[in-house]
Structure formats: structure tokens, C-alpha cells
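Annex B, item 7. Sequence and C-alpha cells for protein A, then protein B.
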Amino acid sequence: MLNCPFIMNNNDILRRLRYTFRISDTAMTEHFLKGGNEVNIEQITNWLKKDEEAGFIPLYDVQLAAFLNGFIIKNRGEKGSEVPKPEKSLNNNLIFRKLRIALNLKDEDILEILLLADFRFSKSELAALFRNPEHEKFRVCKDQILRNFLMGLQIQKTGRKPGDPPPVSQIPK
């Protein structure tokens, strides 16, 4: 399995989505704005830095929620004229649900994406992640599941696994 030993945080998720979908700084500011949070490129730059880099700023749940809402709007279109209000608190289940909506993914699509990251998961386990938290069969989405889903997305969209060297055509001469 292609598992990374670290715990996911909002900055990691934003970094992975930016890389996977090749989202420019300008497009990122538009996603945030559509999601109800006006930001500037300097803020985005600081959110994209690694934790140990100078200028790193943690990305809070409400900010990631705004980005994900904007990502949904960009991919699926606006639902009326009202800007969605970003949630103040996120968890992996909600992040996963928002990505599923934004990318219009069916269960089979998600299972295929997870397999790209060598992560085996059943349809019933997946359904449990998207149930109402009050439901007896609800299951908490652990970091490992979300991390492998994001890794599978990256492999699907870029053809590269995290840590792979860049293609020869992208190596400076």
C-alpha cells in the first residue's frame, strides 16, 4: 500500500488539490470567492507552504470549506444566486463528500480511484462514510482513507504517484 505516515491537515489537502488539478493562483482565489471567502494570492502562497517553511500559515476549516464550496461551484455550476455559507468545522467525511460532489463521482468511480493508490475498500464500507452521522452504520473517515483517495486522484489526473520524479520533458536542461 502507498501509505504516508503523516496526519492530514487542511494545508495538505489544499496543496494536493492544487497539484492534482493544476489550479493556478488566480483560479484558487476565484474558488475561495465563489465559496464565500475573499482571499489574496499572498494568503494562498502562505497556505501552500510546508509546515516548516517561513511564512507558513495554517488553513482553518472555514477557509477550506469555502475553497471546497467554490470547487463544487466551478465544477458543477451555481445553485441559485446565493453564495453557500462555509462550514465552521470540517471532518474527513465532509471533505470527502464535498470532493465527491465536486467531481460528480459514483461509488464505482471512488473505488477505482482508491485502487489506483493500492487501497482496497468495499462498496458497503464506502457507503458508511457518506451516511448521516446519526445512522447506526455510519463510519468515521480516517486520515488513511482520505489520504489514499487524494493519492488515487493524483495518480488518475497526473499519471504520477507522490514522490515520483518529474517526466523527462519537465526536467530543466
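Protein B:
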Amino acid sequence: MTKPFGFSITSELGGESLARSGVVSTPHGDIKTPAFIVVGTNAAVKAMVPEQVAAVGAQAVLANAYHLYLRPGHELIEKAGYLGKFMNWPGPTFTDSGGFQVLSLGSGFKKVLAMTTDVEAEIAIAKKGQRHAWVDDDGVMFKSHLDGTMHKFTPEFSMQVQAGIGADITFAFDELTSLLDPYEYQVEALERTHRWAERSLAEVQRLRVERPDKPYQALFAVLQGANYEDLRKQTAHFLGEMDFDGYGIGGALEKESMAEIIAWVNEILPKNRPRHLLGISEPDDIFAAIEQGVDTFDCVSPTRVARNGSFYTFDGRKNMRSVKYREDFSPLVEDCQCYTCQHYTKAYLQHLFRAKESLAGTLLSIHNEHFIVGMVDSIRHSIEDGSFYEVKDSWLKRYYA
């Protein structure tokens, strides 16, 4: 099996910063980093066709193994020629392991686990009798959010599901904890995640031998440990010494501690392998993550807030439903080169939202994805020309004014 996967660093910011630019090479093309990876949970970016995703400058798409396993099934996707061909996306693809959804939809309510230690966050944790996911050393038994049927994910089965889906970059199965879980349980869960990482890697290596004609799939380990410095550093040492293609920084992260936690692990992880941060898209978080050496990251937020009527501008996030836009015939952002800003006005977009036209979500999604992808592109260029701190200062001062 050839290995058309790799990572090369093209420039480093230097000084106290871990920021770098580089290139992740995959069987379906290169990803210039830092890069924002657009989320297409169900093999579809919400409200956008792949041609529109490409037009906003997206380099890769991340789909969800949990959701695709339940519907339509990884076997069907494999028969279709794997994820990219199935969804008509020609570029690089990622799949997460399904662990987040198994545990957040099973142990928590809605789509989140408690990402804060605030007492009020306890409402996000399911009580006994209300749980839909049960963890043991072998894996996770869970109840489908679609029809209530019972299923089980083990590290081996998660790898088999992701092999069937056929993404270029996959993630090891891990146990996501909440910040409300006590330290003793964080230790137990991290030890389990380490064992699951070993099993995930062994299964992927077995599948590579069994399926030599299949395009190479990279495997990223996932680092947990909540807000605890000793656990985060322990997992960085443990996983960093294993033969993973890259690393995903996951788990419950308090916003105030995020940069520090990323620095703890990235100062230890192998420098020559890519690092992915799971689930961020706010500008201040993006700058902080990149400054601490994150290469790629993903989030559903740009399309989610778009469908709720919000759009990004250089002066912060705005609400399209505001009455002040009723007779505003200017674009969402002056000089923005996205399709939406080139062809439509705020007045028209507000009309679409008030008329409950689905086109509203599509047009705002196009703009929001273009905005975030473009912002990260500008950060990459600023690392390469040495202007990172000037760009960061001007961006954040204006956006959060």
C-alpha cells in the first residue's frame, strides 16, 4: 500500500508561539494549514451543495461516523465508492470516530456535554434512568437517537465503520468526559482512552494489510484529560510515542483555559505530525488555537448560526432579522467576494427569513463559511510573512469592539 499521506512545515512564527503553516498531503489532495475544515455531518454541508462548499475556499470536509453508521450505513457508502464519491466532494475528507455523539447524545441532553464546571451545567448530564449510553472497558453501548434501537461501538468497530466510509483522515475511538466528572473518573476514562487508542491503531493496521488496494487512511489519536495539566501532559507523552499519523485535541475545554491546554500538549507532541482541534470556530478561539500550534480545526457553527439568521462581519456577528435591515440594499459585508455578497442585499435576505424561505439559510451559510475560511487563510499568510500579531490585534479589536 502506498502512503500518500504526510505533513510538512513550511514556516514557523517563532518566539514563544507554536504557530506554523504547513501542508497535509492526502490521497485526495493537499490541505494548506492552518485550515478550517467545513463540517458535513451526514455527508452533506447543511444547506450547501459541494460546488458551493468548494467556491467558499474550503479545502476539506469532515463527516460524522456515528450519524453515517446509523443512516445510510457505512456498507452502502463503501458500495458507492466511499465518502467523497458518495457526496460528490473531490477533495480531502475527515471522519470523527463517533465517540462524541455516542456520549453527548447518550449521557447528556441534546448535542452537548457540560463544557463548564458551573453548577447549572448539571442539567446537561443525564440522570440514572435517563441515560442512552453505557460505557465499559470494551466500548460503548448506546441507544440510537433515531429509533431507539441498541448498538455498540468498540474501538475496532469504529475503525471498521470509518474504513467503510473511506475518509482520508480518521480518528481513534475515545471516551469523552464532562468537566463535571470528578478527577478520579477523568483518570479512569483517560486510561480507557489509551487502551482504546492502542486497539484502534491495531485494528487500522490490520485493515491496511487486509485491504491493500484501498486508499491510505490516516489515523489521528484523540487527547482527552479535561482541564487537568497532569492528565493532558500524560496523554500527550503516551500517544505521542505511538505510530499515529496525527493528533486530535478533544474533550471538554473551558474557553478561558483552551490556549493553555493546547500549549501543554503541543509542546510534547511530535512536531512533524499535524494537530487537529475538534469543534471551534469563533475568531478569538481560532487565533488562540493557531498561536499554540493547531493546524486544522472544524465546527458546525457557521452553517448553524446562518440557519438561525446570524452572519459574520468584521465588526462582529449580526442578526439578519433586525428591523434596520428591512430597507438596507447593501451586501452583508462590503467588498466580500462570496457569492451571496456579490449578488444579494440585506433587504432581500431579511425578506427570505421572514418568508421562511430555505434559500435564506443557504445564502447566509455560503457567506459564513466563506468568512471563516477566508479569515483562517489570512492567518496562514500572516504566519508566513511574519505579521501574525498585527493581524490578530486588528482582527480581534474590531470584531469584539
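Comment on protein B: The radius of gyration is 21 Å.
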